[in-house]
Amino acid sequence: MKTFVKKIGAVLLSSVMAVTSLALPSVTALAGASPISTLDSSNVKLTFAAWGDSQISDTLADISGNRKVYLANASNDLRNSAAAVDALVIAGDIAESQNKSEYDVVYNNLSTTGVKNFILAEGNHDIRFNSYSSSKKQFTSFTNKLNSAAGSKLSIDKLYYSYSVKGYKFVVLGSEKQAAEESYISDTQLKWLDSQLAASSKSGKPTFVVMHQVLKNTHGLPTTWGSGNSATAGTVGAQSDKIQSILNKYKNVILISGHLHTGFGEYTYEKIGNIHSVNLPSITIDNDCGTYNENGIGYMTEVYSDKVVFRARNFNLGEYVPAYDITIKLDKVKQAKFSTETYTYDGKTKKPSVTLYDFNGKKISPKNYTVKYPSGRKAIGAYTVKITFKNACKGWPSTTATFYIAPKSTSLSSLSAGKKKITVKWKKQTSNTSGYQIQYSTSSKFTNAKEVNVSKSSTSKSISGLSSKKKYYVRVRTYKTVKGTKVYSKWSSAKSVTVK
Questions:
Q1: DSSP state, 214?
Q2: Residue 182 Cα distances to 136, 204, 255, 461, angstroms
Q3: CA gap 248, 426 in Å, rounded
Q4: Between 20 and 30 A from 403 (CA), which of 108, 137, 301, 444?
């Protein structure tokens, strides 16, 4: 639901229709007219349907019953599929008002479709009306009941979880507090997300991250939300930037969301750094802001070894809409290594060679790619090269890699201990320096280290609040800010001291 005004308008309209007995638009059930199939049945690895906001309602807003008709037709389309449907992903807002009868309607439609797994994200409508504990219990119980009926092993006890289907991981994010529109994602959940992606990304297979709301400044926001001047209106909330940063660390991450009720068109897909972001239309509610805004639309998704194809489908009419298909080519490069990744500034042009490795750890022959270097490459800064593939690797998506020209480093002059504090002193670096960064840890390997940035005018810093009788390891480096980005020198040698 985009605006409170829109909801009230829907309620009033439905009430008027009920009172005046106006004729409702006819919904023709043509599901199965062109059964679900796969583009390449011999090579497809995984198939799943992807729907947004079913939002089944027993309120005046849906007195016409159209949402239930669209859900019934879409479910029948899955039931009549000519290909196995390994999973159904619904990106939140299963029910309008959290009424048991609404979830029962969804269960009765989906439990007999033959879908093998149900991967459901909670939406704000699934947690906004009741206490969080009761909402969580209702949603997890519904999800588990549906999967049990399908013979799936998926069982959840909280609203964020992960599950693998045929070797492909789905990571589902969920709010940890009751919320009207946005989600609350804790630091604990963010660390969990990072660890899930770190593990799944090693294979090179795509990882599907599912959450109800979208990232900030994506998919046409704020236009596609329709109300609210807040930077987070229509988004996942305050943790949007942190979620995006984590997702962007890994390759072949596909983010699936709903919430906006936009049809197929310019706001459906976008690439955000490494992230492939797909925003799903509602499967039942009227869609807008798209080129194709019909009811009952979503995607049949086919996963292959080198690509993921989101095939646009009208599940209500049982037909594909190929003009709105999305093909995501999977990155085949696990790592790009420069002969030198970080140079110390000396005023000379730098051109490091690049070696690529695939996800099996094998070196990719340089005959199969070309490297385009940016101009300049003399001054302190970050330099990104573009790598394009040819010959045996023709058709692979191009990729990039970044090397750095860094300022000169510095060294520690002294390190002294006081009561629960240490004092760090270092040598002043007079050229190409915007400031210094101090790093300290109780580990000689600097695990779980903390950092402190200091202005370029300082050559000493006291750090307090430390643990008594603990040995601390300290090192320092310079940095220069270039176009808003800090470019760091190499670390100094470390010194250690025991706090009093």
A1: B
A2: 16, 32, 17, 40
A3: 35
A4: 444
314, two tokens = 């009208």
Residue with tokens 């497809």: 44
- Alpha-carbon gap, residue 105 to 71, rounded angstroms: 9
* Residues 254-290 pLDDT 10s: 999 999 999 999 999 999 999 999 999 999 999 999 9
End-to-end CA distance of the chain: 58
The tokens 């899930």 sit on which residue?
A: 196
Residue 221 makes CB contacts below 8 A (sequence gap 6+) with 214, 233, 234, 235, 260
What tokens does 399 get?
């990729």
Contact in structure between 368 and 399 (CB atoms under 8 Å): no
- The answer to whether residues 46 and 303 touch, using CB atoms and an 8 Å cutoff, is yes
Angle, helices 100-110 vs 66-79, to 10°: value is 30
| Residue in the structure block whose two tokens are 């190409």 | 432
User: Tokens representing 207?
Assistant: 């990882």
**441 close to 473: Cβ distance less than 8 angstroms:** yes
What is the maximal distance between C-alpha atoms in the chain?
86
CA 65 to the chain's CA centroid: 33
DSSP state of 392: G
Bridge partner list, 450: 440
Residue with tokens 């670096």: 429
Read off the pLDDT of residues 222-236 as tens digits, 9 standing for 90 and up.
888 876 667 788 899
Residue 185 backbone dihedrals phi, psi, to 5 degrees: -115, 115
Hey, is 402 helix, strand or coil? strand
SS3 percent helix, strand, coil of the chain, rounded to 5, is 20, 30, 45
Whole-angstrom Cα distance, residue 137 to residue 410? 56
- 465 by Cβ neighbours in 10 Å (0-12 / 13-18 / 19+) ranks as exposed
Distance in angstroms (rounded) separating the CA atoms of residues 160 and 52: 17
Rg (CA), the chain: 27
Q: What is the pTM of this model?
A: 0.85
Question: What is 40-101 written as a DSSP string?
Answer: -TTT--EEEEEEB---B--SGGGTT-HHHHHHHHHHHHHHT-SS---EEEEES--BSS--HH
User: Any long-range contacts for 349-355 (C-beta under 8 Å, 24+ apart)?
Assistant: 349/376, 349/377, 349/378, 350/377, 350/378, 350/383, 350/403, 350/405, 351/377, 352/403, 354/385, 354/387, 354/401
Q: How far apart are CA 393 and CA 99, in angstroms?
A: 53
Helix/strand number for the chain, H first, E second:
6, 28
Distance of CA 424 to the CA centre of its chain: 40
Q: How far apart are CA 275 and CA 209, in angstroms?
A: 10
Look at residue 185 and tell me whether its pLDDT is greater than 90.
yes
Whether the Cβ atoms of residue 449 and residue 441 lie closer than 8 Å to each other: yes
